[in-house]
Amino acid sequence: MFHFKLLNKNEKTVALPVLQAKEGRKTLALENYLIRFFERELEVKLTRREMWRSVRFVASLFVLLLALSTGEPLLALPALALAAYAYRGVADITSRFTEKGGAR
Fold it and tell me: What is the helix (H) or strand (E) element at residue 102, kind and residue range?
């Protein structure tokens, strides 16, 4: 049995199952926490998109380190390409961080 919660979005009423609405609130809380974390650490204002790009970059660096730890250089090449691609998304964030004076 489903319970529905009504949401008004641009004067359109949308019915969402209660569980989906709860998951949306949890995701929003996680996003807000991550945005505050990155803003506190980098001392730079971030948008939600920039925050997800930063998360993707950190995850790609983790994959790269994991690939390097295996000792197989061929496994590290795709991981390096992934990290380079993810860095393109956060290059403007790191440049703003550097302009503010870098690390404390």
Answer: none
